[in-house]
Amino acid sequence: MKRVPDTEARLKIAGDGASIDPAGVKFILNPYDEFALEAALKHKESAGAGEVTAITVGTAEAAEALRTALAMGADQAVLLKSNGAVEGLAVAQAIAAELREADFDLALFGMKAIDDDLQAVGPMVAELLELPSATAVTEFSVLSGAVTAQRATEAGIEIIEVKMPCVLTVTKGAYEPRYASLKGIMAAKKKPVTEKEAAIGDAGARDTSLSYPPERKPGRIVGQGTDAVPELVRLLREEARVL
Fold this sequence. Notes:
- There is one protein chain.
- The protein has helices at residues 31-47, 63-72, 88-100, 121-129, 182-188, 229-238; strands at residues 3-5, 27-29, 53-58, 76-81, 106-110, 133-143, 146-153, 156-163, 166-170, 193-197.
- By secondary structure, it is of the alpha/beta class.
- It has a five-stranded mixed β-sheet with strand order 5-9-6-7-8, with helices on both faces.
């Protein structure tokens, strides 16, 4: 469950030139991870048994995302602590190390993170654990130790079957995240959050610099009404070269 900046936040580059300045920035639970959490909760409710554990990798502030997950209905949470921001492979290594010691049927991830658009953590965990995986899952069902998953592709819906335990990355589809109720928020305060040091390997990718996008060029008025159409078509053909 990744803690990410709100999509409506106005971000500023920090003094180091390679990270964002967190001052005044609202952080939220990654929306795609909310889809995965909702999928886990619905699967537990359908099965009538089981346990949902939320896991995150990060600094102490990342526990905020776990509290949100607990308020939504997760049974327990694990914070794998790191000294700072951690890149994707290191996150996958830490989660894989935690799951090696766990007894689980399904490891559910959001399809991607909205801050860096990375879509690789789930598949990397599957590779590290040598487990089958399916990505961009919109809906799934479980029967006789196997998962039948629907995947969103450019060509349409693909249906595949994978044996459990397995890894799924979940995207928008059948799992609309529920709101945390007042009862859930109060109960979250009593649910356990286990803190451990993240088992991070030798992953070495890092951000070296950030920059703001270039400013848009000012608009251009070529005329009014139908009389402007010939000039507009000429500019689109000769200057913009889109026709």
